[in-house]
Amino acid sequence: MKPSAPFHLCATLCLSILTGLAASRPLLAQPPAAAPPATALRDLPKTRSYELRMLYLEDPRLPSLTSDQRTALYAKIEHLLATWYGYKVRVRETGQHPLAAYYAAQDTIFIQQRFRLKTIDLDLAAATTPARLRAVIAADFAPRPLPQIERYLNAGPLSSQPQAVKIAEQQFWKKLVELRQAPLADGMPFFDPASARLNSYAHAAVLIEHLTEADFMLTNSMLLGADAEMPIYVIARGGLSTAITTNNPRSPYQAAVLAGLFPFLSDAPVFVRERGVIPKDELLDVIATLCLHELGHFFLRYAEHYDHPHCVHVAPPGLNYYTWHQAIRAGGPCTLPHQKVTRY
Ligand SMILES: [Zn+2]
Ligand SMILES: [Zn+2]
Fold first, then answer.
1. Is residue 143 within 8 Å of residue 164, measured between CB atoms?
2. Does the residue 33 lie in any domain?
3. Fewer beta carbons below 10 Å: N end or C end of the chain?
């Protein structure tokens, strides 16, 4: 992470445990003029109880969770927060909206933040993007030891940083194209150029930074593309950010979360190959583990971690969410020390 960006899953901006650099993904730009001044994250005491307001945004083209499934998911999240983190939390869904209509209703924010959006998102059609992407990858990789890069790229042995960047670039473009083309039930590809902003990391991050009607935005879609703040696990997935936790100056939590469930709900060939099939009776538990990771940023203020074995605070390498979930649950809460952030 860099000194003040949201956690991509997670895509993010905090301190990397190994490198001492920011490890989660804060946005590059300044908070909006009307927002309260940015302040350091306060600890959230475990001696009181909390309400976590969920907003469910649905793309009707994509597989989804029913209302009953979401209710069951929220109960699982409540249980995990109590037993793993010691937080008493009631999860309450405050609304359900069509994804595109919700984004359309937020146009004022997107217009107000248009320069930030341009700074963060990399336009894949622009001639300058390959060079910018290379610079993004090189900057993220520079402080990382080569064995860590090998693990995320599932490649190696790597002999140098330039070689690692080159391999990452190749993987990025190949996977991005394949994920964009993931077929839907109607045979159409996932990515719809006419609705590109629905899959934009920058738009999502800006949106939840302004969110006031909820604390956690859950969608059945996914964030996919190139942006200037991708950490290694997003780069290695081809630009897929499963979730974001970022600053929200209007929130009593000073934070907001977004998670996109398409990589869990889809059985498109790319997911089956990279992730395996998630048994139906375990799907909600796998999603709950993802939410637990994000809520570790949110409630515990934990940084993104990279090298703890089977730790919920380490994002899954690749798309391997199912085995990641299984290993975390089998191991139980990680007993190693975790680093906190003062800003996402
Ligand atoms: Zn994370
Ligand atoms: Zn750990």
1. no
2. no
3. N
